[in-house]
Amino acid sequence: MHQIHYRSCSLCEAMCGLQIDLKDGSIQGFKGDPDDKFSRGHICPKGPELKSLYEDPDRIKFPLKRTKSGWESVTWVDALSDIANQLVRIQSEFGNNAVAIYNGNPTVHNYGSMLLGQRFASRLKTKNNFSATSVDQLPHQLLSYLMFGHQLLVPIPDIDHTDFFLILGGNPFASNGSLMSVPDVKKRLKAIQDRGGKYVVVDPRKSETAIHANEHLFIKPGTDAYFLLAVLHFLFEKQLIKPSHLIRNEDLKSLENITKEYSPERVSKITGVSKETIERITFEFANAASAVCYGRVGVSTQEFGAICQWLINVINLVTGNLDQKGGAMFTLPAVDLVGEGSVMRSSPGSFNSYQSRVRKLPEFSEELPVAALAEEILTEGEGKIRALFTSAGNPVLSTPNGTKLDKALASLDFMVSVDFYLNETTKHAHYILPPTSALEHDHYDLIFNVFAVRNTVRYNQPLFSPEPGMLHDWEIFSDLTKRLELTRAGKELPKEIIRTKLTPASIIDHALKSGPYGSKGTPGGEMSLDLLKNNPHGIDLGPLKPSFPDRLYTEDKKIQLIPSILKDDLPRLRRKFNEWEDLASENSHFLLIGRRHLRSNNSWMHNLPKLMTGKPRCTIMIHPDDASTLGILNEEEVIVESSVGKIQIPVEITEELMKGVVSIPHGFGHNRSGTNQKVAKEFSGVSINDLTDDQTIDEFSGNAAFSGIKVLIKKQTA
Ligand SMILES: Nc1nc2c(c(=O)[nH]1)N[C@H]1C(S)=C(S)[C@@H](COP(=O)(O)OP(=O)(O)OC[C@H]3O[C@@H](n4cnc5c(=O)[nH]c(N)nc54)[C@H](O)[C@@H]3O)O[C@H]1N2
Ligand SMILES: Nc1nc2c(c(=O)[nH]1)N[C@H]1C(S)=C(S)[C@@H](COP(=O)(O)OP(=O)(O)OC[C@H]3O[C@@H](n4cnc5c(=O)[nH]c(N)nc54)[C@H](O)[C@@H]3O)O[C@H]1N2
Ligand code: SF4
Ligand SMILES: [Mo]
């Protein structure tokens, strides 16, 4: 029997609609769903590999327990009961903070895991709560909280209407867009050019996105904050600032004072972008009918990640492009996580209300920076982490100084991982609890609709039923939450999985009905889960619309142009500028940056053979002049050394890189022992995060600083 199934791809932020052709229950073909209201038929090579993930022989389906003689299968009930007992025992002996949590990136692509996982985490009542946020978008959320009053009021580029798109540290051609859910980004960027607009990329590498841009500016890694300050300096100097009733005049004056010392001329010396170029780009930006400045991973994960995101918001605001068509806008999703009175309103945020034990790093929204995780495990004393619960994450490969974390995890008294792979992180667990894979559960995009370039909504049912006895992420968390409570109360634990009426779908149904399109409805009818089930291609809810001051959640309904707490970070900015000036003449080291590849996804899709074909990807890219100075040849293996580690990696000589800069992709390093991902091992590569330093962070926000790590490159024989 022939059947067509529609679902949204959950692998990256683009939320492409997939059309899956089934014959007698098996997948015959995959293509982009041409009727999807958002993605209009777009798909990338990863989407169809959901099938390979489903079929992967290395995928774990039932719980595993680590014993002296190796991994053993155990029943869910035995595993979950023992875990509840151990967690309660450790917390009662050593305090709640002795148990830590780490949530990885796929959590936000899995609404069941998000909803029920959060409940579980809140019941653990630990301050040692970590996630991939602090190796990624923390600065965006922090600045949204400080400036607009809610961490999820993240400004999204209105790519479909803008005339001038200035991109710093983002490579949407490879990543398919981030904090800008945008299927088919190539077409949409091309459309800007076709309507007479322009897009400009600022990046130390001439990335795939930069190659097609109207203009690409090389910038020295880690210096973007100064570039952005020079832009503002010039806007003030030429009186190109547009007033807004949403900001206080005195704030504008202070801003002018802050930017005074960062003239384009002075800044050009450390950024490598000429004075004339900074001035011209600024002028074009200010004079475009609409314009938007956007900065992503490359500028968030650097020593001034928070300052960068602040300045980007400020530039959009003072040029009249914030909350305006063609500028940086805010979404109104069908399940509203921001609006006051919404049943699903998430916490607006909090900052520095407590600190990590060892290094006193600031909390953000009840999470601590993951750069502190290893030291919190390794440093003796009261409050030391003794047990860790990871879910959908691989921090040994994805967080700074993975070598140190690897050692730390090996020293834990107890560890549990919710994951379907035995990888570099989960190998340290005492229990691996495997959830179903994407095609076996339903899907609603709770998070990426909040970050999308257009308001759309879609819900999809599972394609396959899981094998009997398998559990979804949310079922694992739901049972464990209950089991934890029963254990704490000294009650006997049930001998079967604990089921409750609270399912992710029921939560969403309620939120949809009471949300912004509930009673107001859509062209298709009143919003509900049933409506979405009857519209498997999704429903278009229209372009982004201006929403301030209604959806501005600061106390005085003004935008905080200069959040007072951020002023504390300005002296560091000045100090570092002077250091950069001193460094300008020194050139023995290289500045290391990362990169992403379209056929990869962080550390975890390297076990899918079709995605691993083609040229070797885990190489160090270097400019030909630098290679010739060092006397190294293409494909030669070199030693790369940083303050924390050393790796050996083949060279890829390319003019894409700025001189003095080298690039290594993250997520590789599958050569560690004790894992079981056969394909990934074959293409193991090495981990860039064995070079990045857990002590080098954005000191203000606590976010990891991956961009601009100093490294030495040596010939193997030297
Ligand atoms: N194919 C694929 N897609 C993905 C992912 C993946 O791993 N693979 N990961 C997903 C995730 S988790 C995320 S967060 C997003 C990220 O999405 P993007 O932010 O678009 O990520 P990248 O492709 O890493 O682009 C970062 C760019 O910043 C540049 N850069 C590095 N350092 C600096 C600097 O100091 N200054 C400036 N101006 N630029 C710098 C790099 O050269 C690179 O081109 O992608 C998501 N999508
Ligand atoms: N040097 C450097 N390091 C980086 C970055 C960089 O640009 N440079 N980027 C950073 C960024 S932006 C991010 S987001 C992080 C990502 O960091 P992490 O989230 O820690 O790592 P991932 O590689 O995404 O690992 C995801 C894990 O989740 C599992 N998984 C997949 N789907 C599911 C699911 O539905 N349920 C469960 N339970 N498990 C699932 C996979 O098997 C895998 O083990 O890496 C960061 N690290
Ligand atoms: S672009 Fe992202 S959402 Fe679209 S098919 Fe590829 S991985 Fe899936
Ligand atoms: Mo990310």
Automatic annotation (TrEMBL):
Keyword check for Lyase: no
Pfam families: Molybdop_Fe4S4, Molybdopterin, Molydop_binding
The protein's name in its UniProt record: Anaerobic selenocysteine-containing dehydrogenase
Entry keyword set: Iron, Iron-sulfur, Metal-binding, Molybdenum, Oxidoreductase
GO molecular function, one term: metal ion binding
Family recorded in the similarity comment: Belongs to the prokaryotic molybdopterin-containing oxidoreductase family.
Family matches, as Gene3D superfamilies: 2.40.40.20, 3.40.50.740, ADC-like domains, Dimethylsulfoxide Reductase, domain 2
Cofactors demanded by this protein: Mo-bis(molybdopterin guanine dinucleotide)
